Amino acid sequence: MQEVRRRLSLDNPWWRAGSGIDPEEAGWPRRAYFPHFSRLASETRVRRAVVLIGPRRVGKTVMLKHFIQSLLDNGVPGLRILFASLDTPLYSGRSLESLVQAFIEMHQHAANEQLWVIFDEVQYLKDWEVHLKSLVDTYPQLRFVASGSAAAALRMKSRESGAGRFSEFVLPPLTFAEYLDFAGVEHQLINELDDAGSSGRYLATDIDALNREFLNYLNYGGFPEAVMNPVVRANPARFLRQDIIDKVLLKDLPSLYGISDTQELNRFFNVLAFNTGDELGLEDLSKHANIPKQKLSDYLEYLEAAHLIRRVHRIDENALRMQRARTFKVYLTNPSVRAALFGFVTSDDEAMGSLAETAVWSQWLHDTDTSRSLHYARWKSGRQTLEIDIVSLNAQTQKPRFAVEIKWSDRIPGQLQELRALRELAVKHPLARQPLVTTRTYTGQAELDGIAIEFMPVALHCYTIARNLLRTRN
User: Fold this and answer.
1) Tell me, what DSSP letter sits at residue 167?
2) DSSP E strand boundaries for 359-465
3) What values do phi and psi take at 317, rounded to 5?
4) For the packed helices 2-11 and 96-107, what is the interaxial angle rounded to 10 degrees?
5) Judging by beta carbons within 10 Å of its beta carbon (0-12, 13-18, 19+), is residue 326 exposed, middle or buried?
6) Which secondary-structure segment (H or E) carries 416?
7) Which has the closest alpha carbon to 82: 156, 139, 163?
8) Which fold has domain 2-170?
9) Of 84, 104, 249, 418, which has the fewest CB atoms closer than 10 Å, so is most exposed?
10) Measured between alpha carbons, how far is 149 from 309 in angstroms, rounded to an integer?
11) Distances (CA, A) of 97 to 111, 133, 176
């Protein structure tokens, strides 16, 4: 126990007068989600623990440290704050309550004193959800915050055992807007239009420079550590692959989802990551991978719960879901995962079209309500198969609100006849805003058979989605 107390003192430098969090961590920009998280975690009037969930390497630990610094800045004495990372070997086998008791005894805290207890990497403690729920009930004067990277397992257990006692907060990968802010180039590359009625619209000051940053975002920019640390940035596969992929697929309790063959799960995820944005069918996948369909369904469920992929469902020209949908699309929730697995892409790489599409989808995933409304459309029109990458349906009417075709090319504005799918959808369903086609560098408008179509560079479109969503969130 003496060694435990020594380690706790080492991990809580703010117990010493005048000390705060690590200067390097203090120097990192705060995630755009921080104000919302801080308000939730600071709410002491509700007896609930906050459980911070998210994929690995998206900045959960640093956000916890930033929260500690905000408590200190707001006058909370350092001696009232405990931070314990449960992946520390010295804490192995110890209960959460034993660490809380050690903290209270070390500083002789009174029974009615308001204290802050923060557990990082809580998934390393067996039955953590039972322990945490018990602590919430036993210590009403303590505010508990926990985080973990085993997203699928954490979410399952917090909902099973923490009902009424846990508040979940999901931290996604960096948006493109956050990436530009972290990289320190947002203000020099983006101007907000201030014309009347144009709130939330932006211009790129240098589209070629913005595209270079967009390429960086696709290759490593979903991970704050890679953006801030040049060593990690130079070789994300070496520094990130094991944590992002191996631990999630091989160690983070996939058995909870009935998965025993983690090597097969790993191979399957590699196929999905390489082909992000492709349309898939369980029948064809099962034959190709020689894996039973039920097993594939279990794998897809786990990977989605682990925040690694997102399945998107198909609608037809009438905006109706297929009664027996045999196909769907799968996107990485973080486009940078592909580079961590298979290496960097260049601007002319064959994968850029799919990665640009993945990047747009990954921005929308930061808004749960809107992302649920998004589908892709595909239908037969005569001998031709027509497809639209994104169609949003109104939650009440289930009619299309907007439609987007995603391209990493400037060819389409000169080939409007290739936009027949957009025209047909817009003629059949009056849209709330005009159809959008993304490009590589071109900005403008065109008219196709009376339907106005907007063109915007895909990098600027990603920024616009992210910045406007983050504004409404905070």
Assistant:
1) E
2) 374-381, 384-393, 400-405, 436-439, 444-448, 451-457
3) -65, -15
4) 80
5) exposed
6) none
7) 139
8) Rossmann fold (3.40.50)
9) 418
10) 15
11) 15, 11, 40
> Which whole number is the average pLDDT over 117-136?
88
- Average the pLDDT over 109-119 and give the result: 95
64: enclosing H helix or E strand: helix 60-73
Two tokens, residue 4: 């435990």
b vs e for 240-253, b when ≥16 Cβ sit within 10 Å of the residue's Cβ? beebbbeebbeebb
- As a whole number of Å, the CA-based R_g of the chain is 24
CA dihedral 88, 89, 95, 100 (to 10 degrees): -40
* Tokens matching residue 66: 């930033």
**Residues in CB range of 141: below 8 A, 6 or more apart:** 111, 112, 113, 114, 115
Domain spans of the chain, in order of start: 2-170, 176-473
- The pTM of the full predicted model, rounded to 2 decimals, is 0.90
Q: Are 232 and 239 in contact (CB under 8 A)?
A: yes
Structure tokens at 27: 């120097």
Q: Considering the chain, what is the average pLDDT of its residues? A: 89
Instruction: Tell me the pLDDT tens digit for each residue of 368-402.
Output: 888 889 999 999 988 899 999 999 999 889 999 99
Task: Report d(CA 315, CA 387) in Å as an integer.
Answer: 10
Which of 102, 105, 99 has the alpha carbon at shortest distance from 119? Answer: 99
Instruction: Enter the tokens of residue 298.
Output: 């279990």
438: left (phi over 0), alpha (psi -120 to 50) or beta: beta
Q: What is d(CA 41, CA 145) in angstroms, rounded to the nearest whole number?
A: 7
All residues at 6 or more sequence positions from 73 whose CB lies less than 8 Å from its CB, including other chains: none
Q: What is the pLDDT of residue 261?
A: 83
Instruction: Give the CA angle between residues 301, 355, 419 to the nearest 5°.
Output: 105
Closest CA to 120 of 153, 159, 78, 87: 87
Is 11 within 8 Å of 83 (Cβ atoms)?
yes
The distance of Cα 205 from the centroid of its chain, to the nearest Å, equals 27
* Residue 282, C-beta contacts closer than 8 angstroms, at least 6 positions apart: 293, 296, 297, 326
- Any idea which residue has 């892709």 for tokens? 376
User: What DSSP letter does each residue of 430-449 carry, written as one string?
Assistant: --SS--EEEESS--EEEEET
Question: Which two three-digit tokens encode residue 351?
Answer: 């994968």
Q: Which residue has the tokens 């994300």?
A: 236
DSSP 311: E
Determine contact, residues 388/205, Cβ cutoff 8 Å. Answer: no
